[in-house]
Amino acid sequence: MFTNPLRTRRGRLFAGAAAVLAALGLLSWWLLPLGEQEPRDSVTFSTGVHNGVYQRYGALLKDALAEDLPEVDITLLTSEGSQQNLARVASGEADFTIATADAVAQYQREGKPGADRLRGCARLYDDYVQLVVPADSRVREVADLRGLKVGVGQPGSGVRLIADRLLAASGLDPVKDVTGVPNGIDTVPELLENGTIQAFFWSGGLPTKSVQSLSERFRIRLVPLERGLIEKVHRAGDPTGSYRFAMMPPDLYPRAQSSVPVNSMAVANLLVTTDRMDSALVEGFTRTVIRSRDGIGRTVHPAQLVDLRTAIYTEPLPLHEGAGRYYRSVKP
């Protein structure tokens, strides 16, 4: 039987090439860890009230994620704040969120549904408590709010937790001694300006754009929160251990401070998910949070304070496995 040498040689070449390609495929499978496959998913990110720092940060982070994780579709949800955010993530209504450490501790302490499944991805930046009054107000400390209409934040917000604790530490009943107005930072500046309320609490990154804008069109003053008051808050128990004494810089809101620093109380913000979330996706999400710091920080100034050296400290939440993998990969 006649055998065509050319056909035989060609067959051997094709067989050899196929073997090489198969070997390369096996080698690439062996060398590339599963965690480096590009995540593909649709996730929901619960942020905060319109024009608040959470909401503005979330919108810019979504843009950064679109570049870093193009196969992941991100949907943003506005919210009342930390308490509602945690409930959404724990229940599966949202996949990622931002919440203050004190709200997380409260959620855990109350044993709310899904509390044991919550995980931290990163410590972000600190919120500073701001008690804002008209410049000519008689209010010089929290105790002076007795009998006044005060913006205390929406029921699902971290602001509400803080306002109630500061009022109680000052000897005031949050329900009986003040008229609490349950509005957020999207509306309380206007209410103060038109006289509907006489003061409002806000807890947010510095500077808060809405407070800054208010100070430029209406004369306001920041009421100091002294160290002794914060010590009284601490005596209330576990969830209050997240608070620390801090000072707002003198040039934060120049027209409201007269170049004087203002004593305040600070609490860390955490990027939160659950143990249900895919590790590769959490790793990519965390990587983008760290890498996008400077870009987002040009618009939302608190983002400039996101720091790789401290991001790993997500107490009181355990660190998610995917976030931990990212931090190990960039450890010097």
Walk me through this protein's architecture.
This protein is of the alpha/beta class. It is built from 13 helices and ten strands. Strands 1, 2, 3, 4, 5, 6, 7, 8, 9 and 10 form a ten-stranded mixed sheet that branches.
Short description:
The protein is α/β, with parallel strands linked by helices.
Which descriptors would you attach to this protein?
single chain; 332 residues; ten-stranded mixed beta sheet; 13 helices; 40% helix; globular; disordered N terminus
What's the total count of β strands?
10
Order of helices and strands: HEHEHEHEEHEHEHEHEHEHHHH
Q: Specify the structural class.
A: alpha/beta
Radius of gyration: 26 Å
- So how many helices? 13
Strand share of the residues? 15-25%
Share in helix:
25-40%
End-to-end Cα distance = 68 Å
Q: Can you summarize the main beta sheet?
A: 10 strands, mixed
Return the average pLDDT rounded to an integer: 89
Low-confidence stretches: 1-11, 13-36
Net shape: globular
